[in-house]
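User: Structure tokens for this complex, please. No commentary.
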Amino acid sequence: MRKKLFVLFSVLIVGAMLLSACGSGAGADVKAPVTLTWNFSTEPPTVDPALASDTTSVDVIRNLFVGLTQFDPDTGAVEPYLATEWELGVDADGAQTYTFKLRKDIAWVHYDPLTGETTQVKDADGNDRFVNAYDVVYGVKRTVNVETASDYGYVTYIVKNAAPLNAGEEGFSLDDLGVVAVDEWTVMFTLEDPAGYFPAISGLWVMEPQPAWAIEEFGEKWTEAGNIVTNGPYVLDTWFHGGEMTLVKNPLWINADDVQIERVQGYMITEDSTAFALYENNELDTQGVPLPEIDRVKADPVLSEEFFNAPEACTYYYGFTNNKPPFDDIRVRTAFTQAIDRQSLIDNVTKGGQIPATSFAPPGIFGAPAPGTVGLPSDPVAAKAALQDYLDDKGMTVEDFNALGVTLMHNTSEGHASIAAAIQQMWTDTLGVEVQVENQEWAVYLVTIQNDTPLEDMPHIWRLGWCADYPDENNWVHEVFNNAMGANRLRRDSGLFDELTMAAAKAADPAEREELYLQAEEELALNEVAYAPIYHYTIVNVTKPWLTRNFPLMGGVDFFNWTLDMDAKLAAQGK
Amino acid sequence: MFRYVIRRILQFIPVLFAITLFTFVLMRAIPGGPFDFVGDKSLPPQVVANLEAKYHLDWPLWKQFVSYVIGDDFLGEEGTSLGVLRGDLGPSLRYRGQSVNEIIAATLPASAQLGFMSTILAIMIGIPVGTIAALNQNSWADYLSTFGAVFFLSVPNLVLAPLLIWIFALKLGWFPVVGWASKPPYLLGFLPQLNELNLEYFKHAAMPVFALGTGSAAAIARLTRASLLQVISEDYIRTARAKGLRERVVIVVHALKNSLIPVVTIIGPLFAALMTGTFVVETIFGINGMGKHFVNSIGNRDYQIIMGVTLIYAVVLVIANLLVDISYALLDPRIRFD
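Assistant:
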């Protein structure tokens, strides 16, 4: 039986080879479209703006859809996009409102993968559809709707009634949500509390206009190639789930003349070293550099020219469990923070030119202090003195201290493990303390470091990172560390810090907000030493000479701003 | 024989049920849920609750299990699950809007093609090499084959695969670095389209098939050698020689055929494992196969994908084992099933 199957399969293969040998046509002389070969690294879990929550999905969405606002790639400042202008107001109940005026020329388009044609979508009366205020209102309502179950729905909670609606509380209907279309081209948001950062939030993907009619027609499948209706610089050509995704330029896009890259051929290669081999073989135009390759890249005469280091709005930090002895004492937390030689860690372990961090929000975030100006710098002498002070006070020796079994935990990863090993050694060298390093798989780890874990199971020190959703301190110190907002993994007592970030969120004057955030950063990192900031991330990248790309401060990729010299690329590939 | 096959197929039912139950219970026992986090961030409890309600993870476990196996309508609940018994493996929890059936249909074909070719390669190398080694016991051919087998058994694919890429793709440029040349839609749902089956297809397949096939070939070669050596010393081989049969007939017809029983026994599970996808080789060669889902779905706590790929693997494995048992009767006339 098996033998027959083998024979059948072999016959099929040989037959097919013969057939295909006859069928291959002559190569056409058509000029190749300007094609970027790109690695998405992984299958985007979705390209639905209401559902996306991870960087890969958001990268795709950014090229397919528009938001009300966008961030300036270089400064991170909020700029007009779909909205041309917006103004602050107050409604009859005294709640803060934001009214956005929309531009009228962004078309809803449909791309047919079979014919390669992009056409503007018509409404029931046969009129061209342009993105309007009703699409924005529909989009926000859909994100907030409990049935949509949006991962990132909580970002909208500042909009009036979004939180109770998203919680499915009785007595609220979606019409109570604080977003209305004043007319076809004007949309007004009413906020729960004053929020100076709202224009930044309004540009996030979960607040983007969505095509009601397409979503109703195709349900969950509306994002598949052929079904999807978009309004951004690119359209979706193909999406072989898990394998490839191709985008092509939207000829009806408002700035179509400025979009130089006509086609983005996207792969989903998860293995860094493989993707890097593809880059070296001229099959990818730009790629992140895996850690083990950094030294070679820097030493190689060609690769070092293509190497690029750009700041990324993320911060790597070690949290302390602030109520677990001996870390309930600020002197111990100070000693452990100041004993970390951040620069040496960056030079010898992470190697990506990261920026040493002494406070939380990285440069480019509104309200973020300049790196190194706030918080505790590395200082072995001060660290030693702080620990000695604590030991003398408690009548302990270092051996007694070590008997407490201080534990550092991180989620399982080679990178985190080498950072932990280096810092563990710094603590031993500087303070003479022995720290055990443990690791857990990510999902288990997140449960372990939750606020409700019994104190005896909670590690004293644990690793986490944070990346920006929008460039405002509210997204940093407030959403992560404020006891009323965040998960309070630090197990701090509420205090001045929490009041400061609250006040900063509600303050209207940007200068006042900036000042309050500065104080909040200082309170948490210097006066409380509730956590140890370690470094701000960088992107470590190589880019072929024929590609000109940017590295937006807020992360993400905008293919529509890049340019590529296709002749040079084909020449390098020997075609 | 027919009755035997029917009996074996009926035995699949409790086996597959037990696997379903065990997998279901085990994965729920791991701490952490599918919606606790996105990337480097954890999600607020309210959002987690919405997501769990959408996918019915807020139901009691027994109810979720019943829903998974026989469907929501049996429970009198509103829901989309038709149940595994009606071929519905449920929605993925991570890839929104994709069903596990779709994910498997998209990834299993590449894995199956790769696995099939690797198994063929393993057999084509393993059996001849093992035979030559046995017939020339303690000669240089034997030592060479032993060395080769130990080498390929002990070099893991994690090392072998990047090495192949470095030598044959980057330095020599003979093969493409990554990828699989056959894409959906597949012929009959799992075969490459005929116009894809060209030199390009086999160029893409060469390195992953080599990486996967050689390790298995080494195992088959060692087993063939050992088994053949044992059979050659049997009385009936001496009888065959005493009858004056030619050596070639003695070896091929009498010795080799009988010595293949243990070899076939390992080929069954090997075939099942290779067909359903291998994590390391598929990841390194950038092949969109099912192997990655065996590993990633656990990290993602994508319960439905864990269940789906485990069940597919289990089904292929029991069928492969059945085929192995049937082939015993063909190889050894002394074995009868009734």
